[in-house]
Amino acid sequence: MAKGKGYAKVDKEEIEVGLAILFIAIGLGIVYSASQYYNAPVSHLVSGVSGISASGAPIGQLNTTTVAQNSTAGIPTSLRHSFGHMYIMYSNQNYISAVNGNLTVYSIQLPFGSYTSGLNGIYDNITGYTYVASAGSQMLLLKNGQLSETITLPGNSTNIVGMLYDPANGYVYVENSGGGASCGVFIMSGAGIVGSVKLPACPTGPAAYDSRNGYVYVGTSSTLLDYNYVIALNGTSVAGWILVDGAPNSIIYNSYDNYIYSLNVSSGIISVLSGTKRLSQISSPGAEYLMYNPHTGYVYAPVYSGSNKGFIAVINNTRSFANIPIGSQIYSMQYNPSDGYVYAFYDYNGNIGASQISGITVSSSLGLGDKGVSGALGVRYGYSPSTATTYLYVTGPNEIIGLKGINYLGTAPLNATNSTVTCFGIGVCAPPAAIFGYNPLNRYTYAALDGNLYLVNGTTIIDSLPIGMGAINMTFGS
Fold first, then answer.
1. Separation in Å, CA 94 to CA 31, 108, 301, 342, 427
2. Helix (H) or strand (E) holding 22
């Protein structure tokens, strides 16, 4: 067993995956991927879906009308009953799909005029609620495949830009950037609002939870007064204000060194924070987001500096440490807890490239063929129950590619011949990436693409069913 602060690499894959599932099950928020801890948010996952209608998913009565059900012959008998639900949110639609363990999809009608915001949902295993933000002033609480509660947030102007779960106290922090006196954070517990913090500067969305001191860090921005802070919250009160250079676009907590890292994309300044103090500032022009490896403590910031040029800036504690050349724009980075490596995925001349990052070097690379993704690239860490194998799933335009470490394991074709093409610039177009979800109870990976939901086992599609177009997020819940 290799030991490291904040991480222990176990040789048995099954134990590692079990720990990862326990890590999710105890309520560390977003089950889609623990992105706020290890991985960067991938904006490409929501590109090109605004305004798409949800044809093919009729609205039924709340949790009573079966919209679609496919054969479950490929699922072991022991799994053919409810293992919670996968909740699927859509762009500009006033319903949410709930898919149970039998692959039966129900349509949950939302209140009139209410639409999901596009933010990831948060599952609280203590109360059993899954929190989903509406595009207006409402928090939607889902439970047992139904809309259990609708909570209207106070204030005249509400714009929910972020949510974060605190596993220590069970609080859900809801960031409101409505403007003026409405800027602040609402703190929820169960179906109630237990506190609120008004801020002179509006939250920007990124937030992180520090498990060492229990603080929640929220980024804020004020164009009027031209100052930007990261606010440290302790429960329902403010612990401190930390001045940073530029509005935070990415905030992460590093469990290895117990520091908070905040990035402003415009200035390229990364602020290193501890408690309520700023320790240092690191200049990394062109940095796009932050992620880290809990096994080594290295913080990675992909940088794109021009046509066919790109590298990964490596930060160690409070200083810039190294640059890792990649040679192309990096669309996604993913930490794999089964082997302790970070993987970078990028598009280079129409090919999907994958590199395994060991510390400050590329230990191995793999070309996955001409998939023509040009930016629409989704990546998900998953597990195959039938083969007891961990995977990294990568989506091309019509398929899911399975990797074991940096080794190609196979491809699962998808029925995505009618893909809506997203254009990122003149002559640069691509189909959308799949939206991934993971159920820690039945341990299957789900992929939504082009109006269909696929149940993935290894590199085999066990089953699929229609769910409607425009899926933008998928979250596990009770």
1. 22, 9, 36, 37, 34
2. helix 13-25
Domains defined along the chain, listed by start: 2-477 (2.130.10.10)
pLDDT tens, position by position, 263-289: 999 889 999 999 999 999 999 998 999
pLDDT tens for each residue of 332-365: 888 988 889 999 988 766 667 889 999 999 988 8
Residues 6+ apart with CB under 8 A from 118: 46, 89, 91, 135, 472, 473
In this structure, what token pair is assigned to residue 245? 């250079």
Instruction: Please state, in angstroms and rounded to a whole number, the distance separating the CA atoms of residues 456 and 463.
Output: 8
Taking the C-alpha atoms of residue 312 and residue 325, their distance in angstroms, rounded to an integer, is: 6
Report residue 19: phi and psi, to 5°: -65, -40
Tell me the C-alpha distance between 350 and 286, whole Å. 22
Contact 446, 99 (CB under 8 A): yes
d(CA 152, CA 130): 16
Rounded to whole angstroms, how far apart are CA atoms 33 and 24?
A: 9
In the structure encoding, which two tokens stand for residue 158, read together?
A: 């509400």
